[in-house]
Amino acid sequence: MELSKVRRYRKRHKLIAALFSQSPVLIIGLNLPFLIATSVSLRSAAALSLELLVVHMGTMAVALLAARYCPRVVRPVINVATSTLLMMVARLWLTVFFRGVVDALGIYIYLMAVNGMTLTQTNALTKDSHPLPVLRGAFLNVAGFSVLMFVISFFREYLGSGTLWGNPVAVFLRLPGVLVPFFGFIVVGFLLAGAKVLNKKLLGLALRERALREARFSIIENDVVL
Amino acid sequence: MPMFSKGIVLSQHKEPAFSKPVVRFVHPQTDSLKLDLKQIAVQTEQDAIIELARLARIVDERDGKLLYRKLRRSQGKAKIIIADAVDDEPYVSSRIGPLLQMGEEVADGLELCCTVAGCQEKRIMVYKMITDLETRISHSIQKIKVMRVRGGYPAYQQKRLSHLGDMPRLVVGVGALIHLARAVYQQKQQSTVFLTVAGNCVACPMNLEVSLGMTVMQVLERCGLTQQPTRVVCGGSMTGVSILDTENTLITHTTRAILAVRENQRDAHYTCIGCGRCEQVCPSGLNPMYIHRLVQTNYYAGLPLFDPQFCIGCGTCSYICPSKLEVATSVATAKAYALGQVPGGEEEDEAPEAGAASPSPAPSEPEPNPSREQSPDIPSLPEEEDDAQDDDLLKDLPNAE
Amino acid sequence: MENSFLLFISTAIVALAVENAVLARGLGTDNRSLFVKGPRSGLLMGGIFAWIIVWSAFPVSLTNYLLKGSPYVTVVRAPIYLASILMVYTLTSVLGTRHLKNRQLAEEIKQALPVATFNSALFSAFFLSASQNFFFSQTLGYALGSAVGYTAAIFIIYYARKRLAISAVPRAFRGLPILLIYLGLLSLALYGLIGHNLPT
Amino acid sequence: MQLKQYPAPHIRMSQTTRGVMADAIAALSFLYAMAFYYHGPRSLVLGLFSVFVCLLCDILCSAISKKRYNLRDFSAVVTGMILPLMMPASVEYRIVAVAGIFAIVVAKVPFGGVGHNVFNPAAAGFSFAAICFEDALFTYPPADLKLPLWQTAEFTLATSPAFVLQLGGTPGYDSMSMLLGKYPGPMGATNILVLIACLIYLVSRGTVRWSMPVSFFATVAVLAFAFPRSAAGGLASVGFELATGLLLFGGIFLLGDPVTTPKREMSKVAFGITSGVMVMLFRHFGNMEEGITFALLLMNAAVWGFDMVGERIARWMRRKKLGTLEGEKIPKKA
Fold first, then answer.
1. A160 in any annotated domain
2. Which residue of chain C comes nearest to B351, CA vs CA?
3. Is residue D181 part of a domain?
């Protein structure tokens, strides 16, 4: 592992790493349900990204205070309550712009209140975690999530329903099966593999482990006992 | 659904080595080694025979044990003596050949063993599934009844002697019987061993009586090589060890055959398609396919479920494998790991296609010792062991119940 | 009475097999629940899930009954659900971690409780039962069925990891990616049974 | 002389993996001959195209993963030959291509290629195609209708007896035409006699063990007799269930795939019975006309469990027969 290579990588590909190959969504699979089930149209991707932005940033801000001033037992309660209220606010706000999408998404709009990213990273906060880096990281995570949502939604909407942002476009062969959740599993699986390959290619495991340390998680690989 | 398979019937290429006469190819000094009978001071005839066997350094070639130990253990206990002439591996006829041509000495050896054990029952045990013999084996040799072991390879897993029940018995190889007869009646030390030389590189395949301590190269030159072999196997075709240094590998007591084979390149590397043939033919009812997977993926934690320690090293799984994988090697590695002989996870390759990365299976004969300066007239004896261990007679039986 | 019992059973079976939250909707596919250490922790996770979801099914169905036909239902539904689940969660954490004799079990419960509770599969069960106007027995059955289905999914994933551990999966696909593809093919097979009509 | 070290044994059986695959290819080519007899050259072109797509995907994937592709294993060819035989002869080429790409790229390669795939690639590809193009895949051209190579739009496509059974009706074909395959249905799955001949051939060659197809078909027959879907009564229902749809074809060629089925004999029997039950469940409650591929995918996920239970039973029998050895230790995790 040449450190110069690492440094060069960090200089150049910081954005790519933060948005795609190092975003915890792909590294440890946060918010997978939304990527799998709801990434069927660009409009829903936009709606869910905006909602996650509101919910995640707000909850992180509150959770920073909670981590500083509240005992550990009540913190999840505070976090979830906050995320719920923000989710309701975001929902009322989204119904103005994306009415049809909100109706189509159904329960997933509500489920954003308990998305894995918010729960994990609010749990990971400690008493002495600095607000600014935390909020910047949170924003980058939301950005990475929305990038992935848009990529997968573009793919699936184009192939599945032959439209882009609701407008019909010419497609060689429509595959309605792409819109079914099972294809979301498969696409996300291939994207995860792509992210792993990218990390491996660019600089091996160093940045991946750094990202894992930030997310306070470790990927478990083949450690089961028969 | 039978769990323990009846083995596989191999095509035995015993001809032409079988029907040729056994040729003596001996060292002049070692052949004339006589026993001095002045050391013997025993009362009974049985002790005299055991003492002669000890002085003559006779080793049973079927398990590499000293014959006098087996005789002493079976003294007065064994109810039946069995001469073992089961050559179930292809190309090997180093027991059945001498049996047919030196029947008198085999009969004498059996008689002596009966005297030691104090019983009357004698049998000769041969392998039934030999189809390509030109001379057929009669039902009684020297008025001794011949038992046929049916079933495929490996024959020792077959339960064909069940009519004898668990009668305590002594099983001795044919070569050891012949040497016992010579030691008693001619006072000759065991200085030779019977072995088969065969393979598609050997000019005239035959059964030889070779002095101990000769090198494999000498034996091969005695029979002549038509082309350069790519592998020289010391031992049977299914369980033998392929040796590299023919100049420095010596003939030991348990060398049963020397095969010189030339073959075109091994077939391309397939991957295991999980056809399950290895599981169907395994005589111990193991599942070699999964053991191979576990070993190749360095996943030793899963081994206890598959019982690799019950492997008998017969090699049928590798023989039957249509993908030509080294399954037996992996199973042997797993067995050694399960018995705690090697630490697991030696080879680090993760590709299941990468075969033969692990030590070769435990061979049926001791490793040929490359000590050149050992003088040829002293045969190398197996290491000393005390009589206490495995002294029950049912141990060295074809059908251990 | 037996009518409601039959409804209970049928809804439970539907929630368990046909509309399995993990396999049919991809809900609850969180790496913490995807990677359980062993059968014991998997059972623990499923047990906590069942405990929480069954106890919070009572106030949730009461809420559904009270809010029937109210115009503010979409607004106030979610906070009430979450409040009831949070109540059960707090009670459980207090009871399970304080008044449990077996300290090791208590520690494990303390570890697994937030993972099993704040879980999209658990929330989605109530929203789905509300969107289908279930009665009490159906809501209870749906909750119980989702719990059993979630446990079943955890065990399916556990044994899938065992199976994939000894096959030569390419390095890029080790771990989470191949598991997701495995689940995708499983849910493709399940889709052949249920077809297009998934309530959202 | 230069010698090389080889592990024992030093003699090998002559049959290779290529031979095993070649048996399956030979059996499938019988079916292609029948399809050619009924539907003309289009069936052969479909088969060749599908084989080409599957081979191309396999070679490209192995090139991406920098593995040397072994042209000797014909597994991709077998997958490519199975796929069009499960579809109507009037299917479009691009549908076949989609099925083949899904089969290889999603169901085979990520799991480690041939020998390691958990799910049957042909079953997965057909299931995906069936979800995407349900109406195109389950409307069939009438039997012995020669199809042109390219457009097949102007032909009136009929529904198969399997669809009639799903609706609860009784197919109006006599037994002789059912045996000879003179009814609209999948390209390779209609002619029953040839399929039975293929099964006999494969079993006699040892490529397919007899236990699993026999237990599978027996279970399906018993369930069809117990719960008939048509009003024609038990025995007729048995005949219809066995003859229609992909059941016979799948029971021979999808269930006969050694990679995605259990290894031990008892596990094979249990697997056949369970998949028979699963197939009938899908036929009764599924929303697709043919649910065997979905049922088989579900069952493929359970193969590991079947194998492990079989191993435990085998270990119990072995321990009871041979006892435990001395010096045996429980290995620690490596």
1. yes
2. C168
3. yes
Domain, as residue range, for C146: 2-194
Largest CA distance in chain D: 78
- Which residues 235-254 in chain D show a CB within 8 A of chain B? none
User: Which chain B residues are Cβ-neighbours of D266 within 8 angstroms?
Assistant: 1
Question: D-side interface with C, Cβ within 8 Å?
Answer: 65, 106-107, 109-113, 116, 118-119, 124, 127-128, 130-131, 281-282, 285-288, 291, 293-295, 297-298, 301, 304-305
Whether the model clears a pTM of 0.95, i.e. scores above it, the answer is no
Phi-psi region of B224 (alpha: psi -120 to 50; beta: other; left: phi over 0): left
Q: Is residue A222 part of a domain?
A: no
Distance CA B131, CA C87 (A): 82
Q: Sign of dihedral through CA atoms D268, D269, D273, D276?
A: positive
The answer to whether the CB of C26 falls within 8 A of the CB of C179 is no
In tens digits, what is the pLDDT along chain D, a chain of 334 residues?
677 778 878 888 888 888 888 999 999 999 999 999 888 888 999 999 999 999 999 999 989 888 878 777 788 999 999 999 999 888 889 999 999 999 999 999 999 888 888 999 999 999 999 999 888 888 888 877 777 777 666 666 777 777 777 777 777 777 777 777 788 888 888 888 999 999 999 999 888 888 899 999 999 999 999 888 877 777 888 888 888 888 999 999 999 888 899 988 889 999 999 999 999 988 888 778 888 999 999 999 999 999 999 999 988 888 877 665 444 443 333 3
Residue A222 CB contacts under 8 Å (≥ 6 apart), including other chains: B299, C161, C164, C165, C174, C175
Quote the domain boundaries for residue D145: 18-319
Angle, CA of D271, D277 and D278, to the nearest 5°: 85
User: In what helix (H) or strand (E) does residue B146 lie, and over which residues does it extend?
Assistant: strand B144-149
Touching subunits of D (3+ CB pairs, under 8 Å) are A, B, C
User: Looking at the domain assignment, is residue C199 inside a domain?
Assistant: no
Kindly state whether residue D45 falls inside one of the protein's structural domains.
Answer: yes
Burial class of D204 by CB neighbour count within 10 A (0 to 12, 13 to 18, 19+):
exposed
Residue A225 forms part of a structural domain = no
Residue B382's alpha-carbon distances to A12, B59, B144, B314, B385, in angstroms, are 70, 8, 31, 23, 9
The amino acid that residue D15 corresponds to is Q
Q: Which residues of C touch B349 (CB under 8 A)?
A: none
Residue D9 belongs to some domain of the structure = no
CB-facing half-sphere around the CA of C78: CA atoms within 13 A: 26
Both tokens assigned to C146 = 């989702």
Angle between helices B288-296 and B327-338 (to 10 degrees): 80
- Find the CB nearest A177 among D128, D308, D333: D128
Chain D CB contacts of C198 under 8 Å are none
Q: Taking CB atoms and an 8 Å limit, are A173 and D128 in contact across chains? A: no
Amino acid at B39: Q
Q: Which CATH class is domain B10-263?
A: alpha beta
**Minimal CA–CA distance to D308: which of C46, B294, A148, B370?**
B294
**Residue recorded with tokens 């056949």:** D272
Q: How many residues in chain C? A: 200
D287 exposure class (CB count in 10 Å sphere: 0-12, 13-18, 19+): middle
Backbone angles phi, psi at D288, to 5 degrees: -95, 160
Is A221 part of any domain?
Answer: no
Interatomic CA distance for residues B23 and A132, integer angstroms: 94
Nearest residue to B108 (alpha-carbon basis) of B179, B60, B168, B59: B179
ipTM of the complex: 0.85
Tell me, yes or no, whether D125 lies in a domain. Answer: yes
Tokens of D119: 């799910």
Contacts of D259 in chain B (CB under 8 A): 273-274
Find how far residue B248's CA is from the centre of its chain: 21
